[in-house]
Design a protein that fits this description.
This is Agmatine deiminase family protein. It holds the Pfam family PAD_porph. It comes from Streptomyces microflavus. It is a single chain. The chain is of the alpha/beta class and about 375 residues long. The protein has one domain (about 20-25, about 50-385): 5-stranded Propeller (L-arginine/glycine Amidinotransferase, Chain A). Helix content is about 30%, strand content about 20%. The protein has helices at about 20-30, 30-40, 70-75, 75-95, 110-115, 135, 155-160, 170-180, 205-210, 220-230, 275-290, 340-355, 365-370, and strands at about 60-65, 100-105, 120-125, 140, 150, 180-185, 195, 200-205, 235-240, 255-260, 265-270, 300-305, 325-330, 330-335, 360-365, 380-385. Strands 3-2-1-16 form a four-stranded mixed beta sheet. A three-stranded mixed beta sheet has the order 4-5-6, with helices on one face. It has a three-stranded mixed beta sheet with strand order 7-8-9, with helices on both faces. Strand 13 (about 325-330) and strand 14 form a beta hairpin. The longest helix has 18 residues, at about 75-95.
Length: about 375
């Protein structure tokens, strides 16, 4: 949900999803502070170190979890219908490859069913505030022996920026629905803030996680240890990130992704772009090329060229044009196109080369992009144990 190139490279960087943050805070009022206080509640049991591990995303999935947005307080009356249409398109596309379960509030479930179609299962037993399942949903782990459990990252509305009383409970409720044992991590974060290679290496931005709006007073050393314990990893590759310019404080999953252990991908800005996010992307690329994996091996880094914002369809300054925010499902890569035909085609070709044997589906999700998010942001995989 972060790092993309700006429409005007020499100008100030807009605050993506700023209208969402403002609307959400207006709606929640005093209740937000109460939820913030409970979001970091004492965890239940701690997972046994080394037993479970979050696998890389390209493993086989049991299903994909998504959430249906219905809040005009967050989205506004004018934008909500378009966001819902994009969510439905993503869900229908993924459902061609694997089961999709859509969480919806009772009042909007019929609309979700109508737009998503019969290939998507809509349930009303887990209420939601918004659609960002990557951040609110559980992080599933496997043990390589048929075991599955789930970890909650104590979602607090990206540091108290948006209403989240329902979303703060989504991770635990999904885990209960699946029957997976559930634990709270000992830090506050979101799934989009952490990338894993499934073999012991993580990557993340300091701006998002080492932030007093999530983990006040926590040192990088302590946070690294807690992240590794939660994910079954042993190393974190840290990037500085970008503070305070979008609601996520610069999530890594719109810029850098793991392709495999020892292989990463970074979406690069145009050579003429020099805003904070362009500098961030170049730093992420440099750090990854100089990094090693948890096992000590070298890191091969693929460059994924971002689009030219002067050639994309959207003219909205808050638009996020991230090819890197793709989602892997069984047999397919679900990505986006933005109207820069040359860059769109090149991105599709890059993803096809990096994921041979998978179909590459490119979708027009411009309304979601205007909201500052992408396909990875609104999906959460449940791996096969």
């Amino acid at each position: 949900m972060s790092s993309s190139t700006p429409r005007t490279p020499s100008g100030p960087r807009p605050n993506r999803r700023r209208f969402l943050a403002a609307a959400g805070l207006t709606a929640v009022g005093a209740a937000l502070a109460a939820v913030q206080g409970s979001a970091g509640a004492a965890p239940v049991r701690r997972p046994t170190a080394g037993t479970y591990r979050v696998p890389i995303e390209d493993v086989r999935h049991t299903r994909t979890w998504m959430a249906w947005p219905d809040s005009t307080a967050i989205w506004g009356r004018g934008a909500l219908a378009g966001i819902q249409a994009d969510i439905a398109l993503i869900a229908r596309t993924i459902a061609r490859y694997e089961p999709v379960v859509m969480l919806a509030n009772s009042a909007s479930a019929s609309k979700a069913r109508s737009q998503c179609g019969t290939s998507v299962t809509v349930i009303t037993s887990i209420p939601v505030d918004d659609c960002w399942m990557r951040d609110t949903g559980p992080v599933f782990r496997t043990d390589g022996a048929g075991g599955l459990d789930a970890v909650g990252l104590n979602f607090n509305g990206w540091g108290g920026k948006q209403a989240h009383a329902k979303d703060a409970l989504v991770a635990e409720r999904i885990a209960a629905y699946t029957g997976a044992p559930f634990t709270h991590a000992e830090f506050v974060g979101e799934g989009g803030a952490i990338e894993q290679d499934g073999a012991g290496t993580l990557m993340a931005t300091r701006s998002s996680l080492l932030n007093r709006n999530r983990n006040p007073g926590m040192s990088e050393r302590t946070l690294t240890a807690e992240m590794c314990e939660a994910y079954g990893a042993s190393k974190v590759i840290w990037f500085d990130g970008v503070h305070g310019q979008d609601i996520t404080d610069d999530h890594v999953d719109a810029t850098s992704r793991f392709l495999a252990p020892g292989e990463a991908l970074v979406q690069m800005p145009l050579a003429t772009d020099n805003d904070a996010y362009a500098k961030d992307a170049r730093q992420q690329h440099r750090i990854l090329t100089e990094s090693t994996t948890a096992a000590g091996g070298p890191m091969a880094v693929t460059r994924l060229q971002g689009p030219d914002y002067d050639r994309i369809r959207s003219g909205n300054p808050d638009f996020l044009a991230s090819y890197a925010n793709y989602y892997l499902c069984n047999g397919a890569v679900i990505s986006a196109h933005f109207g820069d035909s040359r860059a769109d085609a090149a991105a599709k070709a890059t993803l096809a080369r990096r994921y041979p044997g998978r179909a590459v589906e490119q979708l027009n999700i411009d309304r979601l992009g205007t909201g500052g998010g992408g396909i990875h942001c609104v999906t959460q995989q449940q791996p096969v144990p």
